[in-house]
Amino acid sequence: MKVVILGIDGLEYNLVDEWDLKHLKQEAYTKTDLSDFEVIVTPPIWAAMLTGRKIPEIEEPFIKRQKFIANKGNITKVKTPWYVKLAAKILPLSIRKRIGDAMTPDPFKETYNYLLRTKKYKTIFDYFEKSWTNGVPSYGRNVSTPEVKEVMKEAVKGNLKPLIEYAMRTYENDRKALFEALEGNYELIFWYTPFLDELSHFLIRKKLRLMNVYIDLNKLAKKISEKLDDGDILYIISDHGMEPIPGDPRGGDHSDHGFFSSNTGETIEKPQDLFRLIVRRAKGDGEV
């Protein structure tokens, strides 16, 4: 038996449902509940999937960072301190960002390999002799590199071309790695790609353009399913989705739910429940 997980950052449940993308929906699909997280942001949620729990050392840097960002939409429950609210009224955004950079290290850079570096928490990879991943946030993947930041900055100015080229190049590289892994003798494959999140921030209000990307992902899910043997398991999961946000200079931001589907009919309620599903499989359906 092989377990394959397609981790698609930013895959929005409502769009998969609206466009009836059956290969992404599989036998059963559901929204995942993100209410446990103070900040709906990539690394803490993927870390929870890998370990079955919230990791405070990964979430806390993002909470700390959020305290220095006023009016950050719907992705956080973190309360903005009074002095930040005051600064937001009297200081230009550029100065506030520099203050934030000085006071709080880049949380993406601080946490991208935390689980690998510290080995403090068991992950799903510890339960299989032969496993593969192309890198998951908190487990060897940094999704906020200088190149990403630069193309995002250009996209905010209205120049989407560099972002789209970068995101699609990332997707192609990730796809190639996935198909190579499927030819290997692995018991667990956890594939991750951030490209949809990068695109969706700016295309969430351009639904026809975004639909083409979702249709391609639906075809990918079909191809992967066809490569699996009877009894192999395919889970598809996202950390969060994306929704239009009025006033957001990009167009949209993370939604308050994620996505999960399975070819087995199983569903999960929260991202961290993925860990228990995987470990049960590793132990031959025994209790976790």
Notes on the structure:
The chain has 288 residues and is an alpha/beta fold. Helices cover 47% and strands 15% of the residues. The strands form 3 sheets. It has a 6-stranded mixed beta sheet. The radius of gyration is 19 Å and the shape is globular.
Topology:
Elements: E1 3-8, H1 13-18, H2 22-25, E2 28-33, H3 42-51, H4 56-66, H5 82-90, H6 93-103, H7 107-111, H8 114-118, E3 131-133, E4 136-137, E5 140-141, H9 146-156, H10 161-182, E6 188-193, H11 195-203, H12 207-227, E7 233-238, E8 242-244, E9 252-254, E10 257-262, H13 273-282
Parallel strand pairs: 1-6, 1-7, 3-6, 4-5
Antiparallel strand pairs: 2-10, 7-10, 8-9
Helix pairs in contact: 9-10, 10-11, 11-12
Write a concise keyword list for the protein shown above.
single chain; 288 residues; alpha/beta; six-stranded mixed beta sheet; two-stranded parallel ribbon; 13 helices; 47% helix; 15% strand; globular
Largest sheet: 6 strands, mixed
Question: How much of the polypeptide forms β-strand, as a percent range?
Answer: 5-15%
Radius of gyration: 19 Å
Number of strands: 10
The shape is globular
In the predicted model, the low-confidence regions spanning at least 5 consecutive residues are none
Give the integer mean of the pLDDT values: 90
In terms of structural class, how would the helical and strand content be classed?
alpha/beta
Give the end-to-end Cα distance, rounded to a whole number of Å: 18 Å
- Count, helices: 13
Write the element-wise H/E pattern from the N-terminal end onward.
EHHEHHHHHHEEEHHEHHEEEEH
